[in-house]
Automatic annotation (TrEMBL), chain A:
Family matches, as SUPFAM superfamilies: NagB/RpiA/CoA transferase-like
Keywords: Transferase
A UniProt-annotated Pfam family: CoA_trans
Cited PANTHER family: ACETATE COA-TRANSFERASE SUBUNIT ALPHA, KETOACID-COENZYME A TRANSFERASE
Name of the protein in question: CoA transferase subunit A
Family: Belongs to the 3-oxoacid CoA-transferase subunit A family.
A molecular function GO annotation: transferase activity
Organism of provenance: Paracoccus rhizosphaerae
Automatic annotation (TrEMBL), chain B:
Protein name as it appears in the record: CoA transferase subunit B
Family to which the UniProt record says this protein belongs: Belongs to the 3-oxoacid CoA-transferase subunit B family.
Record-linked PANTHER family: KETOACID-COENZYME A TRANSFERASE, SUCCINYL-COA:3-KETOACID COENZYME A TRANSFERASE SUBUNIT B-RELATED
Taxonomic source organism: Paracoccus rhizosphaerae
InterPro entries: 3-oxoacid_CoA-transf_B, CoA_trans_fam_I, NagB/RpiA_transferase-like
GO terms for MF: transferase activity
UniProtKB keywords: Transferase
Family annotation (Pfam families): CoA_trans (PF01144)
Amino acid sequence: MKKVYANAGEALDGLLHDGMTIAAGGFGLCGIPELLIDALVESGAKDLTIASNNCGVDGFGLGKLLDTRQIRKMLSSYVGENAEFMRQYLSGELELEFNPQGTLAERMRAGGSGIPGFYTKTGVGTVIAEGKEVKNFDGQDYILERAIVADLSIVKAWKADDTGNLVFRKTARNFNPPAAMCGRVCVAEVEEIVPRGSLDPDHIHLPGIYVHRLIQGSHEKRIEKATTRKKETA
Amino acid sequence: MAKGWDRDQMAARAAEELQDGWYVNLGIGIPTLVANYVGDKDITLQSENGMLGMGPFPYEGEEDPDLINAGKQTITELSRTSYFDSATSFGMIRGGKIAAAILGAMEVAENGDLANWMIPGKLVKGMGGAMDLVAGVGRVIVVMDHQNKAGESKVLRECTLPLTGKGVVNRIITNLGVLDVVPGGLKIVETADGVTEDELRAATEATIV
């Protein structure tokens, strides 16, 4: 079965519908599926619910989907690097469900692992616990969090082979593996598709079973906060 | 000039809390400065976006967009560095593998309640990984100014702001001293340079036992 597609638009063909839930990889602007986000903008699919740790910045990353009003609801742990996000949220156009970062990651991992929910200490006694089942294990309270199963996952990796085995680079891995796992269909974009057999099987970060469609492309990889130090002069 | 510790002295005092061999998560602000004061101790810094062994900022021109910390700043790797995904990262946090987190706070209460993510009516950006960290790590150390800009105690009988975690704080390091959360209230561990115990008590709303 052929997984490699010519471009992001073709890779998303037939997968999109209004009102769908999409899980997206990335942390800030690091390791985000830039090309698939552009194709989503192009598609015009709307009323989207997007599970992603952040929502990009103004005019870049998922922020592009805000400009076009395609997002109805975000599931995120941290937002607001984005003036348009705050404007839409405060005016009630955009729904927002805060998830603690680890809870969001685990909800995705669980969704891809056949685990419908899990108990966690995170958020016990806070607003996050409101309306959730509390269970005591060995003297400690935990809250029940439900898994996320998305209609579609969009992720970014560094390299892939044509079977969809993925290798990530440095901290650009972040939410990409759990996001990929929780989608009924996962489309991945990579910087390079290498010949089958050239990736060391012991060094695959995400096996191709989780990846259904694949594209190669060039990425802007914008830096959100460039911080540097001065070279010590000898 | 005000008595007590400045930001760097607070960070240096917080660094004394860290033990050789620990894996540690540092929050944004003063906690970030703690890394400058670990000295010869073998400390591995975790960045919750998926990295153990966080190095310093890169030299100008050597920034890598694939290598950032949880504050989204460009950083570098060390010879000991490992990378992993966010679910694994919070697995080690939730699983108690991270020995300590050093975090800033808006308010801390005498029962160890911590508020540091939201002010009702103000712009709310989210809790990020703070709720997971305080619920999961071995020891939660708060480093913050003792009072807010209006001169009111941030060390309270009860938090007024929405909580990040309930009963999670172990130790509080402020510009005025060090306090531990113990049954019945807070216990003074030490006072900052030039600060008397009476001055620390007077600046603190919480019960000191």
